[in-house]
Amino acid sequence: MRFSFALTLYRLLLPLLFVAAFPGWMVKMLRRGGFGTRLGERAGIFTTALEYEPCGAVHFHAVSVGESLLALKLIREWLMEEPGRRFVLATGTATGHAVARAADIPGLRVTYSPLDFRWMVRRYLNRFEPAQIVLIEAEVWPHLLLECQRRKTPVRLVNARMSPRSARRFTRCAGLLRPLYSLLDFVAIQEPEDAGIWEMLGICPQNIHPTGSVKFDPGSGARPSRNPEFQVMLDCYGKNRPVVLAASTHAGEAAWIAAAIRDANPDILAVIAPRHAERRMEVKAELEAAGFAVSLRSTFTEPAASADRPQVFVIDSTGELRTWTAHADGVIIGKSFLATGGQNPGEAILAGKPVIFGPHMENFQPLAQRLVTTGGAICARDPSELSQAILTSINPQQAEAMTRHATKVLARHDGATRRILALLRA
Fold first, then answer.
1. Cα–Cα distance for residue pair 134/342, rounded to 1 Å
2. Cα–Cα 20 to 30 A to 30, which of 42, 52, 131, 392?
3. C-alpha to C-alpha distance for 1 and 5, rounded to whole angstroms
4. List of E strands, 257-319
5. In the chain, what's the furthest Cα-to-Cα distance?
6. pLDDT at 222
7. 273, 249, 278, 275: which is closest to 34 by C-alpha?
8. SS3 assignment, position 59
9. Coil vs helix vs strand at 270
10. H or E stretch covering 391
11. 187-218: string of b/e by CB count within 10 Å (b at 16+)?
């Protein structure tokens, strides 16, 4: 009864929420280049002829760029086992869509996931008739699950994570959410400690599988490696110059981190990669106001020497962060100083780079705590601590010890991709 009431309320509020969010969503799509990418597919409006669609394929649903990259990793590994299998990757953002298309995987149909209106979901399912739907990390939508249950289409949630904040919120609402989450065929969770909360949400214990995280599993793919073109750009600032990369920074963090890098050692080149590339001009203005000379990756020209203005290189591109990480001597994780949640430290560790983050890594606990406890990462709480941590990260002996300890922490996730694929293929 409570779920029926909640579902009715959801159906009444969904159009209102859509109308309220629509203007901001349109602006975001404009900034991120969403128009001209078959954006109508979000509303169940398709332009591809039906006879060319991959009917009966495995569908991955990934909202963000990060989730799209995880889905691509699973698809590539699956194709190594079954080269002829067809896949559909449905994304929720224009940047995720662009990354998926840029992967250029033969036979992969990239589309947008439908908005959770019943008629849009039905058009999507009628068109593709998925063999199964694989949700990445956290995206569970009522109408999608209910319609898949009616059609007996399996829905699996993989790489599921539960931050402490989410766990508290889900615990309070467990009675309302249980009928919905119980529709999942199984959940592959990153941490075995989270099994209890998933049981509370209605998943049978035998359908909860601790697999580790795909994010932190090197799999059979190549680790991040350097790009000669990128190295040429960095050499313009001085050959053999130490590079510290601030990855996925959020509002206000670019100048804050760049100042800490300058204070640690003016010879270190600060490379800033904002979380959203469309913020490039905002980030550039922020850095210039703080006294830095700024070059953008998108319009790169050899920077002019400046005696009084330290140089900062801003990576305002999408899908390149993994490669830029390979060029860094140390990596600072964004959204962990002046925002909450943090970003993924896994790529930097897999690339063999020492990692520094701030006090706000809520979305990556307990991993962040394990890294700090074992000496695999440094948590810096203020600019002074950050400057000291930066000096540690570019010291070869200390950096080697950090990366060795961090690699041991990630070892528990080794094979996560293979374990998830075994569940999906079964």
1. 25
2. 52
3. 6
4. 269-274, 293-296, 311-314
5. 70
6. 67
7. 278
8. strand
9. strand
10. helix 383-393
11. bbbbbeebbebbebbbbeeebbbbbbbbbbbb
Of 293, 211, 279, whose CA–CA distance to 248 is shortest? 279
Average pLDDT along the chain, 426 residues, taken 10 residues at a time: 79 84 71 68 83 92 89 94 93 88 91 93 95 91 95 96 79 83 94 90 94 84 84 93 96 95 96 91 94 93 79 91 95 94 91 96 90 97 96 96 95 93 94
CA 113 – CA 204 distance, rounded (Å) = 27
| Amino acid symbol at 8 | T
Tokens of 262: 């300058």
Check residue 152 and give left, alpha or beta (phi > 0: left; psi -120 to 50: alpha).
left
Give the end-to-end CA distance of the chain in Å, rounded to a whole number: 35
* Chain mean position to CA 7: 29
pLDDT at 33 (0 to 100): 63
Are 2-219+415-425 and 228-412 equal in CATH topology? yes
Report whether 14 contacts 116 (CB < 8 A): yes
2-219+415-425: what CATH class? alpha beta
Asked if residues 339 and 390 have their Cβ atoms less than 8 Å apart, the reply is no
- Contacting residues for 65 by C-beta, under 8 A, at least 6 apart: 93, 95, 96, 99, 318, 319
Fold of 228-412: Rossmann fold (3.40.50)
DSSP 356: E
Which of left, alpha, beta for 129 (phi over 0: left; psi -120 to 50: alpha)?
left
Q: Quote the strand ranges of 12-86, DSSP E.
A: 58-62
Q: Where are the domains of the chain?
A: 2-219+415-425, 228-412
Tokens representing 291 are 């006294």
Contact of 90 with 112, CB cutoff 8 Å: yes
**Is 355 within 8 Å of 383 (Cβ atoms)?**
no
Phi, psi of 109 (to 5 degrees): -95, 120
Angle, vertex CA 401, rays to CA 400 and CA 404, nearest 5: 85
**How many residues make up the chain in this entry?**
426
Instruction: State residue 387's pLDDT score.
Output: 97
> What pLDDT, on the 0 to 100 scale, is given for residue 7?
83
